[in-house]
Amino acid sequence: MSSGQADTVPRLTAKGRATRERILATAADLITRYGVTGAGIDDVRAAAGVSGSQMTHYFRDKRHLVKDVIAWQAQSVLARHRAPELGELDTFAALRLWADLHVQRQVELDCRGGCSFGSLAGQLVESDPEARPDLADGFTQWLELFRHGFTLMRDRGDLIPAADPGALAPALLAAMQGGMLLTQTLRDTAPLRASLDAVLTYVGTFAADPGAAAKALRVRLPGASQEEEA
């Protein structure tokens, strides 16, 4: 992730890495549920089942813990986006599946929690200026993942030459983030479904073959007949 995380991590044994990972996963969960201010070092220590000396061995203080939680959350998000079934997010079918998986996860979570990384950014980006570069780095890597997929699609001829991966990537991520926030707040998946369908429709307008794109994305596109969309 960022060099800031690597600078704070001592050389660890396999057992030490597992312990540190458990602490980060626990801290991330508590921060998601109770916020950064509501998740204290002692809360994390107790929930992770580690001693005070272990906490200070891996994390000098709460600021360093939060910094590493940001990096851990970002990598967790990126890992989910690199699942084998999604490939490189470089097909219309993969983008549809990506959207469906986000909606499915919100159904499973009863629309609670929102986006783990987006929620973390919302808490810290203004209240903790030192955290903003790490949050920006996480989002930048996320955007690059989408940009890479769109570039592959354009180079392969799935998207027309006028398609701009640098513009499509933030459109996709912004639609997901906005839809996720509304879904979390309203406890209803409809906003997320609508925002993702809207952005996939927008992406589809750059398809070289609107009919094939409409079928894979399961949206209505200009230039695609109803038979092709079915």
Q: Overview of this structure, please?
A:
The N and C termini lie far apart (42 Å). With 230 residues, this protein is mainly α. The model has no long low-confidence stretch (mean pLDDT 91). It is elongated and about 65 Å long. It folds into 2 domains: 1-64, Arc Repressor Mutant, subunit A (Orthogonal Bundle), CATH 1.10.10; 82-229, Tetracycline Repressor, domain 2 (Orthogonal Bundle), CATH 1.10.357. The chain contains 12 helices and no strands.
Task: Describe the structure in brief.
This protein has 230 residues and is mostly helical. It has helices spanning 3-8, 14-38, 41-48, 52-58, 62-81, 92-108, 116-124, 132-156, 165-186, 190-204, 210-217, 226-229.
- Going by helix content, strand content and strand pairing, the class is mainly alpha
Radius of gyration: 20 Å
| SSE arrangement, N to C | HHHHHHHHHHHH
Number of helices in the DSSP assignment: 12
- Helix share of residues? over 70%
Fraction in beta strands: under 5%
Largest sheet: none
CATH architecture grouping of the largest domain: Orthogonal Bundle
Mean pLDDT: 91
Shape: elongated
* Structural domain tally: 2
Could you name the ranges where pLDDT drops below 50 across 5 or more consecutive residues?
A: none
CATH level-3 fold name of the largest domain: Tetracycline Repressor, domain 2
Would you state the CATH class of the largest domain? Mainly Alpha
Query: How many β-strand runs?
Result: 0
Cα distance spanning the termini: 42 Å
CATH superfamily of the largest domain: Tetracycline Repressor, domain 2
